[in-house]
Amino acid sequence: MLSQQENCVMIFKQDSNLNKLLPQTEWLTYRSLWDMLDRYDSVIVKPVVYHDETPIILVHSLGSDQYEVDTGYEQKTIQSKKNLYSFLRKLILDKTAKVNYWVEQWLPLAKLDHRPFHIRVVMQKLSNTPWEITAKLAKLTNYTDSPPSFSSNGSTTISIEKALRNSSLNSELDHIALKTTKLIEKHFPACQKINLDLGLDVYGNLWIIQADFKPENVLFLKLEEVSPVERTKAVT
Fold it and tell me: Rounded to two decimals, what is the model's pTM?
């Protein structure tokens, strides 16, 4: 059985416009890791199903068969492809022996105060009502090049207005969010609430990171800049 994230990727790839917003992603294998590093120089190694104990790893190719590995907590330089792959497999297996991993194109995310940020959009509907965007926020990570993760640990939440000062970009965000929601609904008609996580790169492009059909929105409890009504809508 496919996981929720695998289903989302397959669904989004059916739409030519949404497919362009997906970072290039492959199953993690020895061959796919080198193919992706040859193509992009920097990649994310991440679990198909994320939880707080699963590591998300950033890998940079430094040239001359040297690689920098960043787990968000420590950095390590490794010599040779073989040693890098062995290190990654051991790191993954020590933490999550039964979790499948992807290798994904790294996105140079836009930053505020030298910290990259990610975007979360919450969409909800009642049984006979249209989808509605009920809340939006941005999360600043504590690391200069942190891998995309929407864990509430060690992060700062800010209003979307602070993160996206360009109003046309905010409109584009809404358009993408509602389009993905309607596409998901075709395949999962019982779904009534979706979190959509997106990245904004340094060139001003929006990217789809993941969608969650069974979300928890504790991040919104930390956001002082939203109204009590908006916060209630986001977490209920």
Answer: 0.81
